Amino acid sequence: xxxxxxxxxALRAVLYIAEHATEGPVRVEDIAAAANSPRNYLSKTLHxxxxxxxxxxxxxxxxxxxxxxxPNELTLAQVIQPFAPITDRRCLMGRAECGxxxxxxxxxxxxGIADAIEQFFGQTTVADLLPTPIQITIPNPK
Amino acid sequence: xxxxxxxxxALRAVLYIAEHATEGPVRVEDIAAAANSPRNYLSKTLHxxxxxxxxxxxxxxxxxxxxxxxPNELTLAQVIQPFAPITDRRCLMGRAECGxxxxxxxxxxxxGIADAIEQFFGQTTVADLLPTPIQITIPNPK
DNA sequence: TGCTAACATCATGATCATATGATAAAATAC
DNA sequence: GTATTTTATCATATGATCATGATGTTAGCA
Lengths: 142, 142
Fold this sequence. Notes:
The structure is a homodimer.
Chain A (H helix, E strand, L loop, with lengths): L4 H15 L8 H8 L3 H13 L3 E4 L5 E4 L8 H5 L26 H17 L2 H4 L13
Antiparallel strand pairs in A: 1-2
Helix pairs in contact in A: 1-2, 1-3, 2-3
Chain A binds a DNA duplex through helix 3.
């Protein structure tokens, strides 16, 4: 019932890139190792996110992938969408009629769940996933 | 993100059987036509529900499929389960660590959604899906 | 017994998601 | 401009889900 393997990997990958944003472009090689995903397949996946405007890739030495959207503005929906529709509001049992003026008896509740899911992915950002060490800088007593 | 085609078909099929429960066993042929599903594939699908104790099949003339569980006790979860896990509570991005004592920052909200879905399928019954003409028996004035 | 109606099952194929290895293309550094 | 580092892409393979057609099996009935 859940996210495709590719979509999950995309999330892990983007998260890893966000975590290493300060160090410049991140190599597919490293992302693949961290996200536990085959290199070339991940490359294709990230390429898609490039087309979507989420990532930027640069080739050659010191190249790699970078975020084009700041983590706190990048929703999980934006990362997942290209690989699978997050939800649709169609009938849970796939009946065409249910979309029209004669929905089945449970259609309302069903759509309610779809709404909750959509909200979750639409409002949660990559920043929410980052380990958030409360940054207390303790001055060195020496 | 949603139910597999097989699971959706199973729901439509069971609903159709429930609707025609009074007429004795329902033939795969008829169910297939109503549920818009290939005959033999549906046969296999219904067979699985037989093994699960949801349906009973009888062969030969006047044979077909019948419900073994009354519609108001038969949850959608029981119909769907054999074809796909409804939800799991694992990390939305597939990280093993998230299950343990160090869940990611959004794991709680994520599991909340899983709970809602599980409740929906676990508490909604086939009876809830039946067209519910509010049964008012008007005594015949003649 | 033999015919027919029905489900059961088997072998096979189509399609899609995922994966892999080889090769191409681009950017940088020397 | 050549070598090196990196992403891009292509051809192919694998596995799962879904589908189809042929054949097997069981039950009822004349």
